Amino acid sequence: MVQRLSVRELRELSARNQLRDVVPFAALVQQPPDELRRRAALQQPRTVVLAGKPQLARHALALVLGFQDMHVYPVGAGPDRLESIGRAPENDIVVEDPSVSSAHGELAWQSGPGVVAIRDLGSTNGTFINGAQVGDQYAILSDGEVLSVGDAAFVYVTIDSLEGLLRMGGS
Q1: Cα 169 → chain centroid
Q2: Which of 8, 28, 36, 113 has the most beta carbons within 10 angstroms of its beta carbon?
Q3: What is the pLDDT of residues 49-93, one digit of tens each?
Q4: Phi, psi angle pair for 119, to nearest 5°
Q5: Any idea what the Cα angle at residue 140 is, between residues 134 and 142, rounded to 5°?
Q6: Beta strand pairing call for 5-6 and 71-75
Q7: CA-to-CA distance for 165 and 143, rounded, in angstroms?
Q8: Above 50 in pLDDT, residue 147?
């Protein structure tokens, strides 16, 4: 099973320069409900911009503004490794949300840790990347894209981007 962390714990690891020990490749960062993100954005005096990563910039607030208790799942155990995602406790990534199927999807690391793909395992409520439904064929996830399993949404963030966001947030 993948160790679930909070944003607060990520900040602590970053402050101790131990982030890469726990998150060697990438992470799935839980997104707060849209209404909470909207309210936080209205209170933010500046715009967060990351060159070349508009999707990631759009969701950066979820990491850097007070969403300390959002769940973070380090992912990427290495090439040719599969990681299951679902509600059942035997999954590698356990998402405790009623909209998530027991065996919802599967992450596959292809060509080493740099390329990750996801496929749906016949879930009831679907698997989506940036709102586009993923079927039973693998679809590649890119840095900053939103992965939704049922109603649970996560941003896929590489370790380099994650370190940058945590530095911006004043870890």
Answers
A1: 17
A2: 28
A3: 455 565 665 566 555 555 676 788 888 766 667 899 999 999 999
A4: -140, 155
A5: 115
A6: antiparallel
A7: 13
A8: yes
Q: What is the H or E stretch that residue 29 is in?
A: strand 26-30
* Rounded distance between C-alpha atoms, residue 28 and residue 143, angstroms: 10
CA–centroid distance for 120 within its chain:
16
Q: Which two tokens stand for residue 14?
A: 């970053």
Helices (H) and strands (E) in the chain, counts: 6, 12
What residue has token string 């370790």?
159
Q: How many whole angstroms separate alpha carbon 166 and alpha carbon 7?
A: 9
Query: How many residues are given for the chain?
Result: 171
Q: Where are the alpha helices (DSSP H) in the chain?
A: 7-15, 19-22, 34-43, 54-59, 61-64, 159-168
